[in-house]
């Protein structure tokens, strides 16, 4: 296992409001993502985007294979999926800053194997909408985080939250529908 | 936000209905909602979104992950640079990425900012420069200047700088997020000036002052980042040295650049004064003086050199395109005023102070940053400001009248002669081309030539007034003579207009060429029978002038039209079309930065040349040269090498060895080979180029100095210190003879020498070189600025 032993401890520090913990956590997530990506992304060029999602999910699973007492697992998963969301959103924000500032087009990153058209919104818009959901119904926001950023199955989430998989499924559908409406509405305005 | 009770209603209905079929659903929903149409539509739209077949969230996360995984900048995260662990990215610029680094020590923990200069690795010259520069920068010690702590190279040779990490916001964000009043903004600005003044006293010019380079800490202390760093990346450190460099092409004009930076003229402390003027403009108005009226880099550059920015007091009440009323009032809200009050606050003193700092000519701005800050202070104290005394009603048109020709880099004394020679040569070329044409055409070409000779040889009367004729005088005279001669045949008139237009363009004054070319196009279009090839040539000329003037959209339109027209003749594959395609290719590469498109256009031209005039032609060599440039642009050095070798083979077969194109092609190949690490051959090629230069022009020529310096870098890379020193010394000697000991290039080669001696551990020599370099730089700054 490559994941450093102090991952759990840092995550706990981060939760208790220690900002520097995030700075140490971020490189760990990056390391894990890149290590996995080397195997994944090389293999197949089509449906590249979904592969990348799989990389995120597997990295998450590896990171959380740390030694955590069963009663803390719920909290721990929530924190780790929050961390994954932070890493992706921060990166997307820094990218959009470059695009705004440099005016330089970047070359050489053409994806000939891409089969899916690009989405009409990005992870930053999703992050904003999720923030709104968090205000209204924290539980739904967390389920989305666990499922999409953490890649956890309905059963895993149900076990961590002491509820049923069917409830988790319904929650996710409602939350997702709400988020999509919210993002669509914000764009239309 | 939806109220809790309403949300629960929605949730419960949604849960009940998601698995029901559509008909049942509508009925159930209508029953449950009754007259509550709002509830009905909320639930309906949620159910609608739930039916989307794919999962958009999964894809959006995948896209974010993909971009993260493909981002090279992130590769350094988690690695070590020197004693520092790279933790995250703090920001990006055009040329560099700044990382947050941390050093863990037994005793303390240190956070630093590490600036990695990505593109600098492409050119070893920049690295030499960087390393000698840091000695000067490391001496700057001021509470408002972020300290340079260390520097070095990554394993792959990419240089980096380690700087004090400043925790805070950029100055514009700081002012806005705290809704600072105008007075508070001015006080903060004066602190920034103090730091710049300190650096100027130490002979360091910032060169890139802009809001994102000034951070304000939580305690309200401004900190300037990147002092002197811009110098390392400035175009003029390269412009005299390489025939083809992507660096030159890619360097962007910063929004806050002064006219002298755009024009490649010497940078002095007055350049910082200008940028501080722009900064003050931005802090007070929330807008950039030129950004909103220009869309491309060329337009921006043109505006910086030629246009007056809108007065600060005016811009805060103007409605700019694409702006909503809300944007405007937000700007004034953040200064605690209404738009009208803000306008009143800025008009008068502050308008005048900013205008004075932002004057086009360096020597008409405030004589020092200190004087600038002092005037702002006088305004704060309610005392009369200097900017409004004397002839403060300054405008750009006055500047244009007095200085334009100097600005355009025209040396008046030589202009008449050079111009005359140039146009005549061009005409001779036309006559030559007309050899095979009809006698009538040949006669016309000769007539045109005679007319021009007549115009230009009469330039003497100007001298009688004690002034040398300028390009303006001579060309304006020619243009006037053409316009005022109704007897001229339309064809002759078109020909002459094109000649003068071309000459204007060669003098760097394309604005004046545009109307002439436009007229020529109009005349060509009226000719009967229609000569499509001629119209195409006229349009291509017009496109070139429009490109220079930054009007890329029209230029592109004319180019497309010219290509189409030139193909519409009897033969669709003709050399004329290929010539225009080559021009189009350079347009795509240089003006549009689109190497893929350029490659495509060059390839079309190549096919035509191949089918018509054959492979052994100068045209073919030039188009291959173009393909090589496009490949360099796209970072494809192997392909660039391939094309450049082919080009060179042709130059060597069809031109004489001493042809200037041959020497230039060799130097370019030397550059590409150095990039590819093929040092041995790069050396041979550069030596050959050097030999040609000295055979043709003698040893004392600046191009040889450039090649010598290239050799110096090459030897240095190979670890051959004595030869590196010898070559660099040769470059220095030639430059001193040719451009003078006080030219900045002399200082620059001294810098390089200092660096070489430093590496060889010859400290006293290194120090003496560095001191001399410093002295040269000092002399290149006007004395009263010191």
Core attributes:
heterodimer; A: 189 residues; mainly alpha; Arc Repressor Mutant, subunit A; B: 786 residues; alpha+beta; Phosphorylase Kinase, domain 1; Transferase(Phosphotransferase), domain 1; six-stranded antiparallel β-sheet; 36 helices
Structure notes:
- Helices cover 73% and strands 0% of the residues of chain A.
- Chain A is mostly helical and 189 residues long.
- Chain A has 2 domains: 1-117, no CATH class; 119-189, Winged helix-like DNA-binding domain superfamily/Winged helix DNA-binding domain (Arc Repressor Mutant, subunit A, Orthogonal Bundle).
- In chain A, α6 (138-149) packs across α8 and α7 (154-161) packs across α8.
- Chain A is globular and about 40 Å long.
- In chain A, 38% of the residues are buried.
- The model of chain A is unreliable at 99-117 (pLDDT under 50).
- Chain B is an alpha+beta fold.
- Among the domains of chain B are: 4-51, no CATH class; 76-165, Phosphorylase Kinase, domain 1; 167-401, Transferase(Phosphotransferase), domain 1 (Orthogonal Bundle), CATH 1.10.510; 409-570, Serine Threonine Protein Phosphatase 5, Tetratricopeptide repeat.
- A 6-stranded antiparallel beta sheet of chain B has the order 1-2-3-4-6-5, covered by helices on one side. A 3-stranded antiparallel beta sheet of chain B has the order 7-8-9.
- In chain B, β8 and β9 (222-224) form a beta hairpin.
- In chain B, α28 packs antiparallel against α29 and α34 packs antiparallel against α35 (744-759).
- The longest helix of chain B is centred in the middle third of the chain and has 22 residues, at 412-433.
- Chain B is globular.
- The two termini of chain B are 61 Å apart.
- Residues 233-253, 391-438, 457-468 and 781-786 of chain B have low confidence and may be disordered.
- Classes of the chains: A mainly alpha (189), B alpha+beta (786).
- The interface between A and B is large, with 61 and 56 residues.
